[in-house]
Amino acid sequence: MKVLALDTSTDVASAAVMEDGRLLGEYTLDHKKTHSQKIMVMVERLLDDLEINPLDIDVFAAAAGPGSFTGLRIGTATIKALAHAAGKDTVSVGTLEAMAYNIPCTDAVIAPLIDARRGNVYAALYKCGDPPDEIIAPCGVSVEEFAERCAEYDAVVFVGDGAEVNRAFLEERLGEKALFPPASLMGARASSTAAAATDKARRGETLSYAELKPQYIKKSQAEKELEEREKNK
Q1: In the prediction, which pLDDT does 221 show?
Q2: Structural domain of 203
Q3: What is the mean pLDDT of residues 161-177?
Q4: Crossing angle for the helix pair 69-86 and 35-50, nearest 10 degrees?
């Protein structure tokens, strides 16, 4: 089974193709957050370099959130278009769940964090496994509150841009319990999205292109402003 996966949910844009769990190729850019300009170019170049036709892909997958509202829309819209054109199914992968796949088996729990600004993060907690076992479901929370939840565990591996931004605080609050992987494993990776999508597709958790949607935890600023205008009418 060939899976093409995208992750545009953070500042990183990443595209990968995986076949039966083996990574065939991956392109990742962390540069100026120009996802709308770069992601299709990355996909086309990746498929061309692998000598793969889009019709050869069995499942198209997107890291569907939480994350950047604009980034999520770009990634899911691109996957919807590709799947529709190829007549294939899609898989929706939670961004935090995908990040848990960055970390090889460990006795520590895995805490993916996405920076939500102003001392807040999108966060979840997983136990290492195949697939990772969810302990705390994805949520929007303050870093302080999430650190309190993590304090009960002996060791926590933090990943994601939210972990990088708040590393000093987490190390101060949790001491030796707070662990951080090498930089190459910290960020969003389409290969991790593809690995999660492979597991989901094998379990039959696929969607039509029309059913694929971003997974928002918090309302976008535009939605908040619209609601505020409606209240003031």
Answers
A1: 46
A2: 2-96+188-221
A3: 97
A4: 40
Local structure of 161: helix, strand or coil:
helix
Which domain CATH number covers 65? 3.30.420.40
pLDDT digits (tens, 9 = 90+) for 56-75: 999 999 999 999 999 999 99
Compute the distance between CA of residue 172 and CA of residue 170 in angstroms, rounded to an integer.
Answer: 5
Q: 61 and 11: one domain?
A: yes
Question: What is the Cα–Cα distance from 196 to 190, expressed in whole angstroms?
Answer: 10
Which residues lie closer than 8 Å to 218 by C-beta, 6 or more apart?
A: 66, 116, 140
| pLDDT band, residue 230 (cuts 50/70/90) | low
Contact 5, 190 (CB under 8 A): yes
Number of domains in the chain: 2
Claim to verify: residue 7 and residue 22 sit in the same structural domain: yes
Question: Which residues is 19 bridged to in the sheet?
Answer: 2, 22
Q: Are 75 and 128 in contact (CB under 8 A)?
A: no
- pLDDT 10s digits, 173-222: 999 999 999 999 999 999 999 999 999 999 999 999 999 999 988 654 44
Is 232 a member of any domain? no
Enumerate the β-bridge partners of residue 27.
15
Residue 231 falls inside a structural domain: no
